[in-house]
Amino acid sequence: MALINQSYEVLSDPVKRRKHDIWIEEQEAQQEQRAQQEQRAQQEQRAQQEQRAQQEQRAQQEQKGSDDSVFAKIFSNIEFLFVGTIGLIIIISILDLLLFSNNKSKDDEYSTVSDASESVLLADNEDNIENSKTTYPASFDCNKAKSLTENLICNNEDLAIADLELASLLKQAKTTVTDKKALNNRVRKQWNYREKNCKDEACLFEWFNYQKIVLTQIIKTGNVNAGLTVKELTPKPLPETGHNDNSNFEGVAPLRIKTPSTGNHYFVKIENAYTHKHLVSYFIQSGDLLEINLPLGTYNIKYASGQQWYGNEHLFGPETAYAKADQNFNFRFDGYQYTGYTIELIEQVNGNLKTSHIDPSQF
Fold first, then answer.
1. Would you say 183 and 218 are in contact if contact means Cβ atoms under 8 Å apart?
2. How far, CA to CA in Å, does 31 sit from each of 34, 53, 95, 257, 311?
3. Distances (CA, A) of 186 to 49, 199, 228, 280
4. For 340, which of 7, 14, 253, 265 could close a Cys bridge (C-beta 3.0–4.6 Å)?
5. pLDDT digits (tens, 9 = 90+) for 336-354
6. Rounded to whole angstroms, how far apart are CA atoms 298 and 257?
7. Do residues 349 and 218 make contact, with C-beta atoms less than 8 angstroms apart?
8. Residue 319: helix, strand or coil by DSSP?
9. Strand 278-284 to strand 321-325: parallel, antiparallel, or no bridges (unpaired)?
């Protein structure tokens, strides 16, 4: 598929296609020129042979009837001419053989280059076809490659193929995720890591394999953080309990959330139960109690938990656990008082609040 896509790219681009046509015309012109040279050489050879044959015939006729010594001398000259002719024929045959071998190698060279990912067809430098033999098409312009890693990719066919495959996976990933900004940030961090740390082909192969696994998981799940490893993350200071992302609302109905002292911290999200519009998110440290007031309305509550905090984007990293309360919470005024809830995120026997684990993409 990579070869087909590259061929289509050349055929659909008038400039690249014209370069390719010019190159083929030059090859055909060279072959025609060599054929004409061979034909002229053969004609000259036949003319020389006929001329020598006529000279030998005249010499024999002129010397007919002469004495034995003269005849022996003429015969010696004829023998010398014959040996010389045979030597010349051998030399010409060797030259023809070398010329044929050179033509065959040129034809083989064209066939190889044409099959090798269209390296000649995609060369941007039409004045230097030889350089294109060692440069393979990648997702970027190899003529503008500046870094060590980019040059390694352009000069290794397997790395160039891996680069094109990764570009295709990235294109698919952008169509499956909703947070394209987060995906771009993650890809940029990975690219910076590669440019900084990969100095040889082995490192690049390992990097491409890892990226292929990650992007495949992102495509399947739609989760930007799929396959995330701690190596990619930078720990953040633990926020205080009550830290939130939206304080621009006026709450009247009480909500109390208790957390267990297990070492796990919580990031709680509250959203409208019907429109799913986000209202606010709160951070709660392990063992703490969150006490807030919410506007009247019906909400659902989701939460993520973990021990090491990596910020609002990556939450608790690869070990983040995600859950959602199975019921909706109706904060209302009954005519006398505002009614709210107390929620304990502690597993209890016969508890009256059930939760379900959810995928990161649902959080």
1. yes
2. 5, 33, 17, 84, 67
3. 78, 21, 10, 25
4. 253
5. 899 999 998 877 666 678 8
6. 17
7. no
8. helix
9. unpaired
